[in-house]
Design brief:
The protein is 27% helix and 28% strand. Strand 2, helix 1 and strand 3 form a beta-alpha-beta unit. The N and C termini lie far apart (35 Å). It is built from 4 helices and 6 strands, in the order E-E-H-E-H-E-E-H-H-E. A 6-stranded mixed beta sheet has the order 1-2-3-5-4-6, sandwiched between helices. It has one domain: Collagenase (Catalytic Domain). The chain is α/β, with parallel strands linked by helices.
Length: 147
């Protein structure tokens, strides 16, 4: 029997004078064993980024194995194989992010130094302005020629 995913969900109120929604809800799940992760540190980084950007949020971050990422990639995008990051926008607007981010740590880790900001921070910073098709935004394919 597999272990249940580690999930941390904390509503965090924004500053009283903030014009954006005052709620920030993060769900962080680690369903991979390739690299150890500190969910409390990742949560703090994400909350600090959202605060600095003045954004409310309802976000889920799922750190998954290559096998699970390949399943998500096929099920939702019709692409074979794993990739490092897939994001789903569930109705974000300029003041409030609402979505999910699947991160394959085995694929994302080797790219961390030469591919720009990490998927978690990049998605938070761009998902409110990127356009998406059918509510799905993909970022950073595993190989340079892949789509």
């Amino acid at each position: 029997m597999s272990k249940p995913a580690v999930v941390a969900s904390i509503p965090v109120p924004g500053p009283a004078s903030s014009p954006v929604p005052q709620d920030r809800v993060l769900v962080l799940g680690n369903r991979q064993k390739d690299r150890p992760l500190s969910l409390p540190i990742l949560r703090r980084i994400t909350l600090d980024l959202l605060e600095a950007m003045g954004l409310g949020a309802e976000l889920g971050f799922h750190f998954v194995s290559a096998r699970e990422m390949a399943r998500v990639n096929w099920q939702f995008l019709g692409h074979e194989g794993s990739t490092d990051v897939i994001t789903f926008d569930h109705g974000s607007n300029p003041d409030h992010l609402h979505g999910e981010c699947f991160i394959c740590v085995a694929d994302a880790w080797p790219r961390r130094r030469n591919s720009g900001p990490p998927g978690l921070a990049r998605w938070c910073a761009t998902s409110s302005t990127e356009s998406s098709t059918c509510g799905v935004t993909t970022t950073w394919n595993r190989s340079p020629g892949a789509s």
